């Protein structure tokens, strides 16, 4: 029988499935983001487990101005019962490219946007360097080394003299110049000790001993999901992409201008005559992360330690700019659940498998160029939207009734709560908002799919707490709850106080 698994018929709308809050049925439920038929009926059934079908329920999504319409987003939302809209006021999901303050200040608590405010502190290469420097200054001397995963970086022209002094100290060291905010390898060039530099940008110490596969440089594109900053919740997808330079690695100065030797960007290397595309039968110059890990194991490396080191880079990077984001969230009066962000972390491994952070892309490409892209990006996107939790709120119906609840009055209430002073947290007498935070934390983790929660976990709350510039009440609450036994944690969130 031709089924819902195959998606909606032309002209029809896919069914909307809703997961109700098992601990507080009066709360607005969460929309199930379905999986395409390519993942099979079993995976779809697992995803839909416990959900109810809502009849005559209207959900909408909108792409913002200048936001390229991402096919994978349209597909994920359409098979889950959403319809494209041109009105932000009634859209449940707003997929934006430009992070305008006006977008954030007009959001209702039931709306989701795919960015957090202040994300430029990671997105721009100069801002990323400044963000890492800033947090290192706040740390005690014994913890400063925890942020040595960003190559030595100078911002030009402001720091040109410092850079020149550093360059003269080690004439054999290579450097790489990158524009502040360009992407796809545009404007990047490798510098020797005497290359003249006139343009502005960031110049980074070149990692000269990179891990080589088939004698070529590779880097990793990893997908990180942040669903909340207060309290902080960070996830990392289990699969990623390994991108190859298409010419063999060579540090001869004569090869400095050969971008196919030094850059791994797909948009650059696909123009090389030696480029081998990824196909169903041959991986070409794009591997899966799991294939790389198998290769490392075959070489006798401990890939589990490498993965753990990468996870630490991700969490520490997010923590480094947490304060800037939380400040803007409060300024704009956003609710905890308004924002989420899928980030592309670009990581380079050296020959010792030390991870180096190259950049963070907060508008990472979800375009699917090859079979591996389809496999990785499709499910990752569906899992990210499902984990982020889109409230099952029918704005069209509420407007017709003239009763738009969970709207401005809830926003005002949220903003006022954020002004409350932190006090001692007693787990035996938590308030309604505190219970709501803990339930969100628990239920979101159940929806994570192929993502792994990096922070918070019972094992690492205490370890990473030293890197926060401010001990926020919500983080302390979750940390205390995480330290309890699983039985006691569940006992607390089952309290019927909401």
What does this protein look like?
Helices cover 34% and strands 18% of the residues. The protein has 18 helices and 19 strands. The longest helix is centred in the middle third of the chain and has 18 residues. It is an alpha+beta fold and 498 residues long. α2 crosses α12. Strands 12, 13, 14, 15, 16, 17, 18 and 19 form an eight-stranded antiparallel β-sheet that branches. A four-stranded parallel β-sheet has the order 5-4-6-7, with helices on one face. The chain has a four-stranded antiparallel β-sheet with strand order 8-11-9-10, sandwiched between helices.
Spatial shape: globular
User: Percentage of helical residues?
Assistant: 25-40%
- Number of DSSP strand runs: 19
Ranges with pLDDT <50 over ≥5 residues? Answer: 1-6, 407-421
Distance N terminus to C terminus? Answer: 43 Å
Structural class: alpha+beta
Mean pLDDT: 89
Summarize the structure.
By secondary structure, this protein is of the alpha+beta class. It has 18 helices and 19 strands.
Features:
498 residues, alpha+beta, 8-stranded antiparallel beta sheet, 4-stranded parallel beta sheet, 19 strands, 34% helix, 18% strand, globular
Topology:
Blueprint (H helix, E strand, L loop, with lengths): L15 E4 L10 E2 L9 H8 L3 E3 L4 E5 L7 H8 L3 E3 L8 E3 L5 H5 L6 E2 L6 H4 L1 H14 L14 E4 L3 H10 L5 E4 L10 E3 L9 E5 L6 E2 L2 E14 L2 E6 L3 E4 L14 H4 L3 H4 L16 E3 H10 L4 H18 L1 H11 L8 E9 L5 E7 L9 H18 L6 H7 L6 H10 L14 H15 L4 E5 L5 H5 L7 H10 L3 H8 L5
Parallel strand pairs: 4-5, 4-6, 6-7
Antiparallel strand pairs: 1-2, 1-3, 8-11, 9-10, 9-11, 12-13, 13-14, 13-15, 13-17, 14-19, 15-16, 17-18
Helix pairs in contact: 2-12, 15-17
